[in-house]
Amino acid sequence: MDTQSDIVYRIPNTLTINPHYEEVKVASEAWFRSFKAFGSDAQYTFDQCGFSLLASLAYPEATKEHLRTACDLMNLYFVLDEYTDNASPNIVRQYADILMDAIRNPTKPRPDGEVVLRVIAQEFWALGTSSASSTSQRRFVECFGHYTDSVVQKAKDRHHRYIRNIDDYFDVRRLTIGVYLTFVMLELSYDLPDDVVYHPTVVSLQSLARDVIILDNDLASYNKEQALEEYPHNIITSVMNEMKCDLHNALSSVEDLYRSTRNKFLTLWTEIPSWGPETDAIASHYLHGIANWVRGNECWNFESERYFGSNGKASQEHRIVTLMPKQLSAGEPLLVHTYQST
């Protein structure tokens, strides 16, 4: 029977950054640039997004090796995002299959002429598995399959110009956000028992944290997405479509949902059970990591230039954003690069 843990669980009020940030950032970014996945202008824009900063805020206690794995994962996430945002569902399905094969077989020889996503994924996971716990490796491969399948579904929705209702949107977005993969990164240094991961309270905390991150991300990214996409994969789009309301009322509804979801998380936080002293110490590290992810993601949305450009601080302070005009492209056309052995 579950009992209350003696561990004191606290939601982090302040953020810290991983002390290995600067060193690992240099290594991870140099590694990613070596693939030449983008042209020079697109690579510069990609660099300004600060994906290593996101990882370093989200994993402040990670070892240097595990922070490198997390930084490389962020780069993989977002290069896949760029490569699939305007691709057909069939192409995205090919990419998804290539990526899953790469993750399942990180040392498998790579054929020339295949999309560069494969070698990026293989090298990321080959290095990651060298220091990751066995349970985290198993969970990562499982979650990665769900993630890539959801990216295909997102491409199908875009291709068919399909705007999902709110509930259906969440069904897909809860996978395209990739949060479960990022939570697995919290387990790299230890074997987290299934009794913890699949405990109903922990599952609910994972789900609520995931939804808070979705809502926070969608609020931050909507302006950019509405300018570049006809049918943005965003909760605000679904709310406007289902509720037949304008942007102002949709934003109010999403903000209300954000607050209520966050409050549910905070309430449930007080009900974390005990699994015994040894397991409680591991569970505490994992659950505090989940809570920190919520804070780290919120901070990164404004610290990075991905969504607000150089106006992040002002947008965070004043909570006012000027709606961007519609445009076909944010810059140079994306060139999908292939791998050639040397």
Give the neighbour order of strands across the main sheet. Answer: 1-2
Q: Give the CA-CA distance, first to last residue.
A: 59 Å
Q: Over the alpha carbons, how many angstroms does the gyration radius reach?
A: 20 Å
What string, H for helix and E for strand, traces the elements in order? EHHHHHHHHHHHHHEHH
Largest sheet: 2 strands, antiparallel
Instruction: Assign the CATH class.
Output: Mainly Alpha
Per the principal axes of the C-alpha atoms, what is the gross shape? Answer: globular
Structural category: mainly alpha
* Strand coverage percent: under 5%
State the fourth-level CATH superfamily. Farnesyl Diphosphate Synthase
Number of helices: 15
Nearest-integer average pLDDT? 91
Q: Could you say what the CATH topology is called?
A: Farnesyl Diphosphate Synthase
- Low-pLDDT ranges: 3-8
How much helix, percentage-wise, in residues? 55-70%
